[in-house]
Structures are given as C-alpha cells and as structure tokens.
Specification:
Layout: E1 17-24, E2 35-42, E3 49-53, H1 63-74, E4 78-82, H2 87-91, H3 98-114, E5 123-128, H4 132-142, E6 148-152, H5 161-164, E7 170-176, H6 183-192, E8 197-202, H7 214-237
Parallel strand pairs: 3-4, 3-5, 5-6, 6-7, 7-8
Antiparallel strand pairs: 1-2, 2-4
Helix pairs in contact: 1-7, 3-4
Length: 239
C-alpha cells in the first residue's frame, strides 16, 4: 500500500461551508428539467472534493454516509452528499438501479468540475458497501478525470474484470478485518485492476463497520489514500 500523507486537521472553530445545491441531469434517465439535490461542504484549506455514494443512492439522509463525510471534512476534504434519485423518483419509491446510479454519479462529477468553488481541485469517489460497484463503474467511465477512489466493503456485484481493467484512478479497497471476503475474491479484483491499487483491512471491523471506532478508522485510511493522490496533483498545477 502506498504511504499515506498525514491529513491536515481542521480546527473545531473553522466553520464548514455547507450548502444545498441542485445538480442538473444530463440524460441519465430523468426528465430534462429534473435535478438531484445534494449537500456540498467545503472546509477551509480543502485539498480535494470527495463524492460519497451508497447502494441506495440517498447519501444526504443516510447516517453512515453523513458520519463518513464529516470525518473526511475534518481531514481537509470537501464532500458532496447527493440524493442520486430525484424527488419525483423518491416519491414513487423507484429503486436506484446500477446503471442509473452510475450515470447520476458521472453527472455529479461533471457538475463538481464546473462549480466555481471546486475549480482546480482533484475529484475523488468513495463507495460505501453496495455503493462500491457504481463508484468503480463511474471511475471506469471518467478515466483520468478522477484522482482517486476508495471502496469500503461491497464486494458482491462488482464490475467484470474487463471493466475493472479500465479504471485509471488510484484505488483503495477496504474490507472489515473480522469478516473479510474470500482471499480468492480479493486476489481476482486486485489482478483485474490495472491502476495503482491496494487492498487493506480495517482491524476489528465487520462488513458494515458498526463496531465502535470502525468507521473513524476507515475514514482515516480513506482520507490518507485520497490525499496521497490528490496533493501531488495540486502541487503539479500550482503556479
């Protein structure tokens, strides 16, 4: 695993700039006037923007997603928590199928790239559990536009090796130390990826990171990985 840089911590008295935003959709299965609602949080001294996604596609209101985002913000990472279903789709109880969720994630990355407050900042993805599959699929579509990717759990239903081989973003795969997937599965995914990648255990954690301190430990590992790959990009583009 690559050595992670120590993330600069944001002091408690530095207010995070959180704003609710609307992300227009670009042909990913919704009416032209439809938009996604999202919370964009930009801590002082941010080094990258991380989009957090889970399998349900409703990160704004998921307690674990929000807790993870808060931990990443404390390490100097901006975050975007989006509802990847429109309000109309939520009202009709429409499920967030994989192609729809992947397309919406790509739409959200494109929006971040064009947002003035995020200009020039590296973009990263973090998939939680079943959100790992759409995160990897989106990474394959985005190519070098994505700086880094972290997947926490969610080894079931991952993309085929032919898709994984096209991911270019540096990828961290985290698994719970108490309930790791079969070694053969880990080796197969690792072999399919052609980018810089690492598989790491979260000590003492189960699949859903419900144990005390497990999510915080995972967030620290994710932040270290993302910053290790975002900071060099910032240094290269600095005047």
């Amino acid at each position: 695993m690559a050595h992670a840089r120590t993330a600069p911590r944001i002091s408690p008295d530095e207010a995070h700039r959180r704003q609710e935003v609307r992300i227009p959709l670009a042909g990913s299965g919704a009416a032209p006037e439809s938009a996604l609602l999202a919370d964009l949080t930009l801590p002082a001294g941010r080094h990258a923007i991380t989009l957090v996604v889970d399998g349900r596609g409703l990160s704004r209101h998921a307690a674990q997603d929000r807790a993870l985002a808060h931990l990443l913000q404390a390490q100097g990472l901006g975050t975007l928590l989006a509802d990847f279903l429109t309000p109309e789709e939520q009202a009709s109880q429409r499920a967030a199928d994989l192609p729809r969720l992947t397309g919406r994630l790509v739409d959200a990355v494109q929006w971040v790239e064009a947002h003035p407050a995020c200009a020039g900042l590296p973009v990263a993805l973090c998939g939680l559990e079943a959100g790992s599959a759409p995160a990897l699929l989106a990474a394959a579509k985005l190519g070098s536009r994505l700086s880094a990717l972290a997947c926490i759990g969610g080894w079931q239903g991952l993309p085929q090796p032919s898709v994984l081989s096209t991911v270019r973003a540096s990828t961290l795969l985290l698994v719970g130390g108490r309930e790791p997937p079969p070694v053969a599965d880990q080796e197969a995914v690792y072999a399919a990826l052609r980018c810089e990648r690492s598989v790491a255990l979260v000590p003492g954690a189960g699949r859903q990171l419900q144990e005390p301190g497990a999510l915080a430990h995972a967030a620290e590992m994710v932040a270290g990985w993302l910053l290790a790959h975002a900071l060099p990009e910032l240094e290269e583009t600095a005047p």
